[in-house]
Specification:
The chain is α+β, with helices and mostly antiparallel strands. The protein is 29% helix and 21% strand.
């Protein structure tokens, strides 16, 4: 599968199998994030990998998946690993969001290529997680990426709706705006 095919097929996964991810796989995912572009090449990001079950449970208690997923989330189908995207505030204390987004995108695309699902989250209890994980005050938890082998197959559909939904069988449907609605050529055209 080439990069474009991976992008077309990748969906956010929120329900996971209880199948461990290897340390090597997780290291490779962090490497993909590490190699993302960084503004002025300041490289303010560091990554904290959580693989231990007890610590994963604590992370799970301090994040919010939101929407239709909250109703289906159980101890049996929660993520088996997390990668926290940390910002070293001594290097950059603002305008780091693009770096985090690019790194996280690389991580979830690299994961999907290995048939690993991921969910990038910003709904985080940062204060609790920083304390639980002993993260120094000069670091900021920007994003948390939940990871694991998918126990669901979210379906992409072209739609004018923007809210995702689950059908009676529990399958997640993810509406995406049609390309004609978001693509402009040479100047902005009101749609």
């Amino acid at each position: 599968m080439n990069v474009y095919e991976t992008i077309l097929k990748r969906r956010t996964v929120r329900i996971f199998q209880k199948k461990e991810l290897s340390k090597e796989t997780l290291k490779n995912l962090v490497n993909a994030g590490r190699l993302a572009p960084s503004a002025r090449n300041l490289q303010p990001l560091e990554f904290l990998v959580i693989k231990n079950k007890k610590i994963c449970d604590k992370v799970f208690e301090n994040i919010t998946f939101g929407g239709e997923t909250e109703k289906l989330q159980t101890k049996e189908n929660q993520p088996v690993s997390y990668i926290l995207v940390l910002v070293n505030k001594k290097i950059r204390d603002k305008d780091f969001e693009h770096d985090s987004g690019l790194a996280s995108g690389n991580i979830v695309l690299s994961a999907w290529e290995k048939e690993i699902g991921g969910c990038i989250m910003g709904a985080i209890n940062r204060k609790n997680l920083s304390k639980i994980l002993s993260i120094p005050s000069d670091y900021f938890i920007d994003l948390v990426i939940a990871l694991g082998y998918p126990a669901e197959k979210p379906e992409k559909e072209e739609s004018r709706k923007e809210k995702y939904w689950r059908d009676k069988e529990g399958n997640l449907h993810v509406p995406k705006k049609e390309i004609e609605k978001v693509l402009h050529w040479n100047e902005f055209q009101k749609k």
